Structures are given as C-alpha cells and as structure tokens.
Description:
The complex is a heterodimer. By secondary structure, chain A is an all-beta fold. Chain A has strands spanning 4-5, 10-14, 19-25, 32-38, 45-51, 56-59, 62-67, 72-77, 86-93, 102-103, 107-112.
Amino acid sequence: DQQVKQNSPSLSVQEGRISILNCDYTNSMFDYFLWYKKYPAEGPTFLISISSIKDKNEDGRFTVFLNKSAKHLSLHIVPSQPGDSAVYFCAASATGGSEKLVFGKGTKLTVNP
Amino acid sequence: GAVVSQHPSWVICKSGTSVKIECRSLDFQATTMFWYRQFPKQSLMLMATSNEGSKATYEQGVEKDKFLINHASLTLSTLTVTSAHPEDSSFYICSAIAGSSYNSPLHFGNGTRLTVT
C-alpha cells in the first residue's frame, strides 16, 4: 500500500516557467513532509520541508504547499532552470522529523532551455 | 553542508557470497543512520535504523540475519548482505541526520548498486 504517491512519473517544462510537482498521501498521522532532489548516480539531496502546522513554506525559488484536508502537497519551482532537471521525491513521516521517512516513487522533471 | 560518504558505489558479486557496504558521515557525528533500498522505478524503502553502540532496528519484512548492520562508531555504519542472491540486487543507500533534532533533514550517501549474479 503506497502511503505517499507521486502520480506523475515525469514532467517537462520550459525554462523560466513554473514547475509544479504534486504529492498525495494517505496516512493522516503524517506530520512532517520533505522534498528531495536526486541527480543520476548521486544520493537525494534535501530541498525543503514543511510541518503539518503550516500550509506553506518558501525558500528562494522553491515553495511547498500543504493541504491537509486533501492530504496533498505540492512543490513549486519558479522560475525553473535547466539545472533543476532531476528526479524529485516527496517524503513524509509521522514522527515530526526525519525518522522513518516514507518516500514516493519520484517525478522526473525536465526543464528545457 | 553535511556529507555522507558511501562505499562502494557499485559492486557485482556471485550468488552465495557476502557484500559489505560502508556509510560514513564525514563532517558530523551521526548517532543514528538509516539504510534504504530502492528497486527500479520504486520508492526508497526504509530497511533499518542503525544506532551507534546498539542493535539496529529493522522494518517489518526485512531479515535481520540477512542484512547485518553494525554501527561501531559515531561516523561509520556498515550493511553486510549475507549469502546474497539475485533477488537482493538493488540500490542500497544510507543516510544520517546531521543536526541534533530529528527535525533536521536526512543527508544521503550516493548509494551502492548491488548486482548479484
């Protein structure tokens, strides 16, 4: 049973436009959410996180939105750059922190010049 | 930033042999490290939580006698895949929390691609 779902395996956007990556979850006990970016042959690197007490967190070009009632979160990248091309993983935990993270399958983002 | 080094990056071994994977935190001490596994086109799955100086905590369905974890110091955890079989072929990746709080994000190694022939 996939508790964290990223239903779009891939996404392609033009440089300068907005990239929106979506993530849905089923476990109502999740209270901490993170986004990781992964380049080929490298481990995931942390991008941004959000606690369930918030509905938005922003860090530079990256903004994460959380809709608890819909059990949905999204990552917005504005403006998108070719260097953003990578696989993005959504992760969640029910521990309030990074213990026992549950990951989605990832979405491959391609930003075209 | 916090760096986690994992070695080897890839390994091919014959069925029945054992393989050891090392995970080191290079610029911070990691009381706790986590081992994940990823099959092709699947999500990262937590295998076990490695605690310095004590036994690892394994997730349901993960055989502790097959996947031996040793966390001998604050900077090193090892995963040994014993009597490896082709179905153990996967991408294994370790991670550690760099901060003092579990609110700190995980930092991942670059992973180890294991192929068992």
